[in-house]
Amino acid sequence: MRSQSPTDLLTRLDRLGVSMLVSEFEDQRPAARERRAQVLSELLAAEHRKRGVFIGITGTPGAGKSTLLGELARRLLASDPELRVAVLAVDPSSHISGGALLGDRTRVRVDSREGRFYFRSQASQTQLGGLSPASFDVCRLLMHLYDCIFVETVGVGQSEVDIRFLADRVYLVMTPLGGDEVQFLKAGVMEIPDTVILNKSDAKQAARKAYHSLKASLQLARPFDGDRVEIFRTSCTSGEGLDDLAAHVHQRVVALGSGSDLASAAQRNHDREAYFYRRWVEREWGRQGKRYLEDSLGGAEQFLEESKGYDQAQTAFGERFIAALARC
Amino acid sequence: MAEKKLHQLTDQDGEATRDRPWIFRTYAGHTSARASNELYRSNLEKGQTGLSIAFDLPTQCGYDSDDPIALPEVGKVGVPINSLDDFHLLFEGIPLEQMNTSMTINGTSMWLLALYVALARERGEDEAKLMGTTQNDIIKEYLARGTYIFPPEQSLRIISEMYEYCLERIPNWNASNVCSYHLQEAGATPAQELAFALSTAIGILDSLKQRGHFSHEQFERATGRISFFVNSGIRFIEEMCKMRAFGELWDEITEQRYGVKNPKFRRFRYGVQVNSLGLTENQPENNAWRILLETLGVTLSRNARCRALQLPAWNEALSLPRPWDQQWSLRLQQILAYETDLLEYPDLFDGSPVVQSKVEDLKALARAEIEKIDGMGGVRSAIESGYMKTSLVRSMAERVSRIAKNEITVVGVNKWQEGIESPLVSGDDGGLFKIDGESVKETLEALKAVRGKRDAERAKAALLSLKAAAKSGANMMEASVECALARVTTGEWAGALREVFGEYRPVTGIEGQRLGLEGERVEALRKRIQRFTDERGRRPRIVVGKPGLDGHSNGAEMIAVSARHVGFDVVYSGIRLRPDEIVTSAIEESADVIGASVLSGSHVELAEQLMKLLDEAGARERIQVIFGGIIPQGDFERLAQIGIRAVFTPKDYELIDIMERIFSLIESPAAAAE
Predict the structure, then answer these.
(1) Separation in Å, CA of A116 to nearest CA in chain B
(2) What pTM was estimated for this model as a whole?
(3) CB–CB of B539 and A105 under 8 A?
């Protein structure tokens, strides 16, 4: 059995090594926190650590997200020999058994011999639709190892708001024939994406019609920035629009991740951690816990700062909150 | 003239007569072109009257024998064909003009027909006299069998172009053969089989109409060339009624929808392979009776009698049949046709109120389903949306669950399991057929020789004009014949079209399953899995996939869905995977178990490759590997030596047993191995 330190993975990506770490970051038991904090501190100190950019891919089931993602990943890897790409794909769990069927892998066609690519499936567990409780934890790891992390989620709805806070850029995938734009409009999802992809645009006329109806919907939903939301038309059968889209993604990844603007990247990280920390407190300790965080601990930002880290803040919160309850 | 009796079959002159029998075939082919040629010649000598060619999976999926994904499968489930030279060998001593040849070929159907035409040309035989069928039913490949290559649109184009080529040039060739056989194998009810097959034929006729290359007269003749290939199961009365329903519905559809005036072109012409799904590994000798009864379903009613029949062998659930096994099945056909009086009567069931009522019932159900598919925009949409696949998977799950609950009796499986061991399986070979491992060499050498001695420029030019035709929308048939003559190989032909058309990945239908997995044992297992999840901080994970080219995915899908149902996180990776793809999935997903499903007979080679790759990645200790599929008992020990922790075969039909055993492996790997 090989043993690799986390920083070794920066020089030589080893699938088994990455997977074992990912499993540790998925582990939601309190005992796993210490090890996570240690791994992260090692990685943060490492010279060559990555500053991964998160790209959210969301949309209705059947919109072709996974196939599209595979096409994008292949193009990104081919166009930039230094780039490392990871995918975190979240699928819903069964409410009866807790088990899940994770099928996205089949559609993401990247040669398994490509060492710069990593794909991990996750079950959403009890979360409706959106991310799994462990998604953010895994992202905290992957961002130090990869340049570009795609996070793929199914479904649209309120829970999808999580992806807005996790990703640096959100791409909403829809099909020209699905009448999706109306559905999205109803669900309030039009407020989420930075970019919209009209996939399966090989049906030319339908694609044109959908494009215009989509523009109108965006105007309606976002009267102030509707114009700035870009719309891409793609087809994975004919390959149309894929190169442009890949170039677009690549440009964003380079712009956000190259360290040219470290201050704003750091700010984004703080915001992200604060958001998911609040979500964690609520999940683990309920509304009362959330109130305690806001009223007695000065809010997520301050408490994270005070605790010197996300994992430490989880442990510290439990101790403080239980003590507070005992005093009541 | 003698007095006419109602029970007497008479010819045009009113003389008593008896029908000519259907065509006797045996689905055969294995090892190499040479070995298969020997088999065909000996079968024909035994009184077989037509050929039914089984191709190996690389040929069906469009790969050369020396492609890495093809190697473990060469010659396993059929004959490997790489180039026209192989075809010369395969048909040596068999006159094409006199032979009725059926080829079970789909993704590469145009290529195999082109090879057949090229062979006739080089041998100086008359192309116009060729007789036979290319199966060419891509729909059921998407739904059940898995040897598709191209997306539905391009596949329908290929089928249409073959009709357009054959109609005037090879008038006795059935360019396609709508095949509901595999639909039943995949779980279809009789009504589903009727509806899906007829909807597929409707899709072909619509495509021919839309393309507009035929006059109405030609269109009528082309309709007359559409043939069907049907399954016949053990409920043989219902099956007989299904065949009558098929005939009546097809007449109705071709007349009403398409205005086909000539009744001759509205006839439902079909061939049959009787059901293999219902053949059991337990007490395999019982299958002989099952095959006999299933044969009655498609021969008893004269108005709904098959045109050609091929029977599986009693040991098909165990392995490929040996020549003797095939001979035994052929003898059944001969006894039925020549010893009995079956062929001396007009239809026995005309006017039977029972049969008529049953037929009407089936027709009503089928019509409703056809309408539903029409409503979705036809068969292509019903495929692309996953509707048909999901329906089938659901029917299959219901069947399995009814067997599990003893609502369906299967003798020797869920009733009367005890019995005296059959002497048929106690011979030196265990009643099994083994492929000669060395024979692959011959095929590979022939392939190398073809590449070496052909005119490279001509081959290159032929491939270029094939691609040009594919892009421009011109008929690709003649370009394919030129490829054949230029000694282009199977992998090159398919590769060129892959470049232009892309490769299709269909909907799996896996979400549609409902299982009979309920009850105390399921609850108990779920609790154990929840406890495991709480204690270890993660859910048990299984990667399910099919290495190699065999595309029968229903078993794998059933396992995947059952595993989720009891609480696993399941990564379903689908079909046609290289071993390294499966191992990568398992490592990236931190899986506890790999479940690999193999029905092609390549389990030993694939097991060796999987374990070697896990070793190299340092993951052998972390990931248990189990196998499922058609795997003979005799190979269990060998698989265990290689490192496979458990093997499941059709004998293990209780899903809860399988799930418990898999979970035990994860819970304590060492103990479960004992």
Answers:
(1) 12
(2) 0.77
(3) no
